Amino acid sequence: MSWRLRVVHSTGFGYDAPVTSSYNEARLTPRSDSRQNVILNRVETVPATRSYRYTDYWGTAVTAFDLHAPHTSLEVTAASVVETEVPPPVEVHATWEDLASEPVLDRFDELLTYTEYVPFNRRLGNVARRLVKDATPDEAVLAVARWVHETLEYVPGTTGVHSSAIDAWEERKGVCQDYAHLTLVLLRSAGIPARYVSGYLHPEEGAAIGTTVAGQSHAWIEAWTGKWQGYDPTNDVPIGVRHVSVGVGRDYGDVPPLKGIIAGGGASDLDVDVEITRLA
Fold first, then answer.
1. pLDDT for residue 92
2. Residue 240 is part of which domain span?
3. What is the DSSP letter of 63?
């Protein structure tokens, strides 16, 4: 089964004083891989800017642009059409011995390392060991993700964009970013290479073709157990046709949709809107 989805992601900034220079990076271009194919993508700005694209260290497409005329607002719109499929079944299954081998540890060192968003925690390490006991690596990924799903309550506003997995765990509340980060802490504690995935989720399982709905920026994880496999701990489901992946990295810090620096200006207002349409 496959879906064709159109995603329009608009971000607007308003400044209370003119910005004289603005340097920006947008990670808003979906990935083409074995599960999804990007048919169309464009990133446009108002005021218009000159831009160029490159692929970052983690394999995420980046649109870089800068603006050197005074402006009090900036709008960035990314429009994409993507075909998604149900991932093929995992045919290569790594053992715990495989994951502990020198080649795997060397290859995935950065995705086994703790970060500011995904910090070491002794108590969570003990939880991880309990969850994966007597499980295969594949089973361990599911057990960890389901534990996170059951442990956290989805409550927007409890955490912020700079909150770590520990912040969410202590509150027992968070959003998709927090679910992903907490899952990564546990998987890395268990010795399973794991990465953060940013993207979008169509909110309706039986979405009507041609109907545009308010979509969601979303986050989930991918774990390597012989092959990369994705799981959505927020919704406790495997990655499927409703998921559109954009960027991957160690944590949110590697894949923010927009980041930049400005000269001049002052306090800013931010408005984000995502629309998603099933085309086929």
1. 84
2. 96-254
3. E
For the stretch 200-236, pLDDT in tens is 999 999 999 999 999 889 999 999 999 999 999 999 9
Residues 163 and 225 in one domain: yes
DSSP state of 152: -
Which of 67, 119, 107, 63 is closest to 253 using CA atoms?
119
Q: Is the pTM of this model over 0.70?
A: yes
Cis peptide before 119 (omega within 30 of 0): no
Task: Choose among 83, 19, 77: nearest CA to 272.
Answer: 77
Q: What is the mean pLDDT of residues 71-77?
A: 96
Query: Strand, coil or helix: what is 122?
Result: helix
Each residue of 167-190: pLDDT tens digit?
999 999 999 999 999 999 999 999
**DSSP structure class, residue 113:** S
First to last CA, the chain: 11
Domain contains 91: no
What three-state secondary structure class fits 165? Answer: helix
Q: Which of 221, 181, 171, 190 is nearest to 127 (CA)?
A: 190
CA-based nearest residue to 216, from 63, 74, 75, 8: 8
CATH code for position 43: 2.60.40.2250
CA distance 40 to 32: 11
pLDDT at residue 266 tops 80: no
